[in-house]
């Protein structure tokens, strides 16, 4: 075995490891996690911690939710739990380290906005430069359905890409990816390595057996797919197993290793593909025999067949062909209202003026081709 050569590592820890009994934070598993982080830093590896658990940590501060409680009241109560639990969780981590840490709370709205995304990157890099441990969580107190990532598995992959990490470790409640659910099938076999994530790999994914977390195995594979496409090796390990962390530190593979793509996406293309969410769609006319690049290059207004959703100039949109093929995600040069007006009014002069002004309905600098997705 070779000692790991990680330069920058993202470690994702779930709620069941933070507050397994939903009675506040527990040191039962946190001590092992903290020791792993300390040893990684001692070996020269920069570490970023993505830590779930604020709701689970704060739940004990509130009475049980009555069955008759309205959905909106339930959501408000969970947000309050997150607010109370976040400080408790940060305090628990701080007690375990003799170096400083910093809290970063994010929503998907922060990550999908390019300016805020760049600001997040700069903050993480500055903290690491000053040997401060970034501890990142989704901001459950303020997030909404439209703005949330929804699970910290995918959040950890987005953070790993934003931080230019080379390794992502996702803690699970089982040893890794099995070919079938090991809780139900005695003959389930652990998959030690995955070199390419295909539909067959997704078909192996089952749900999590934790009653305090939100992410199952499928979200972990989704996260791995995001990470490896950015050139990030990704491990899924059993976070409850202390020996798993010892094995990692000496170059072992105690779970499932998803190998980084040999030809990873460039940073901007990865952000467009995996982090920026489309606010609408534009259906365009394609020409048989043209390459994907040719379909999307200088995409003029007269090729627009249909506009779906509401978006403004500068928003990320999905470009599809008439047959439904996903061609690209890109920044829109025009809002949906103007494009709809163009498609409903055959005005060559207006189309010509718009084409002269911008040259394309999408930004040729901010585009991610989706040929293989």
UniProtKB/TrEMBL annotation:
UniProt signal peptide: none
Protein keywords: Amino-acid biosynthesis, ATP-binding, Cytoplasm, Kinase, Nucleotide-binding, Proline biosynthesis, Transferase
GO biological process: L-proline biosynthetic process
Binding site for ATP: 12, 172-173, 214-220
Associated pathway: Amino-acid biosynthesis; L-proline biosynthesis; L-glutamate 5-semialdehyde from L-glutamate: step 1/2
EC class: transferase
Main localization of the protein described in the UniProt heading: cytoplasm
Residues reported in the UniProt entry to bind substrate: 52, 140, 152
GO cellular component: a single term: cytosol
GO molecular function, one term: RNA binding
InterPro entries the record matches: AceGlu_kinase-like_sf, Asp/Glu/Uridylate_kinase, G5K_ProB, Glu/AcGlu_kinase, Glu_5kinase, Glu_5kinase/COase_Synthase, Glutamate_5-kinase_CS, PUA
PROSITE patterns in the record: GLUTAMATE_5_KINASE, PUA
UniProt keyword ATP-binding present: yes
Pfam families: AA_kinase, PUA
Top-rank lineage group of the source organism: Bacteria
Catalytic activity: L-glutamate + ATP = L-glutamyl 5-phosphate + ADP
Assigned protein family: Belongs to the glutamate 5-kinase family.
NCBIfam families (alphabetical): proB (TIGR01027)
Functional summary from the UniProt entry: Catalyzes the transfer of a phosphate group to glutamate to form L-glutamate 5-phosphate.
HAMAP family: ProB
Name under which the protein is recorded: Glutamate 5-kinase
């Amino acid at each position: 075995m070779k000692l790991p050569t990680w330069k920058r590592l993202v470690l994702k820890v779930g709620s069941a490891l933070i507050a397994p009994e939903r009675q506040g934070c527990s040191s039962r598993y946190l001590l092992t996690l903290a020791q792993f982080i300390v040893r990684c830093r001692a070996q020269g590896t920069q570490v970023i911690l993505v830590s779930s658990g604020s709701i689970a940590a704060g739940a004990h501060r509130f009475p049980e939710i009555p069955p008759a409680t309205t959905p909106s009241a339930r959501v408000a109560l969970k947000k309050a739990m997150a607010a109370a639990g976040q400080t408790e969780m940060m305090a628990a981590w701080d007690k375990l380290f003799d170096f400083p840490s910093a809290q970063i709370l994010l929503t998907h709205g922060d990550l999908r906005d390019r300016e805020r995304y760049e600001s997040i990157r700069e903050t993480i890099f500055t903290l690491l430069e000053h040997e401060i441990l970034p501890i990142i969580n989704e901001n459950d107190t303020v997030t909404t359905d439209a703005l949330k990532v929804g699970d910290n598995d995918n959040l950890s992959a987005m953070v790993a890409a934003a931080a230019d990490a080379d390794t992502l470790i996702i803690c699970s409640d089982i040893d890794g990816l099995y070919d079938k659910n090991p809780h139900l099938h005695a003959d389930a076999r652990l998959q030690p390595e995955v070199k390419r994530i295909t539909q067959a790999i997704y078909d192996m994914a089952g749900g999590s057996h934790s009653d305090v977390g939100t992410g199952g195995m499928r979200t972990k594979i989704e996260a791995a797919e995001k990470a490896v496409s950015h050139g990030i090796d990704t491990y899924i390990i059993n976070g409850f197993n202390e020996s798993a962390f010892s094995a990692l530190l000496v170059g072992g593979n105690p779970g499932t290793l998803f190998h980084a793509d040999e030809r990873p996406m460039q940073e901007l293309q990865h952000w467009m593909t995996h982090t920026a969410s489309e606010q609408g769609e534009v259906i365009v006319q394609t020409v048989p025999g043209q390459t994907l690049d040719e379909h999307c290059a200088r995409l003029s207004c007269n090729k627009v067949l249909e506009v779906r959703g509401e978006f403004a100039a500068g928003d990320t949109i999905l470009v599809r062909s008439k047959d439904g093929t996903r061609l690209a995600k890109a920044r829109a040069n025009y809002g949906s209202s103007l494009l709809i007006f163009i498609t409903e009014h055959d005005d060559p002069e207006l189309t010509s003026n718009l084409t002269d002004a911008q040259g394309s309905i999408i930004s040729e600098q901010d585009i991610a081709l989706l040929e293989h997705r």
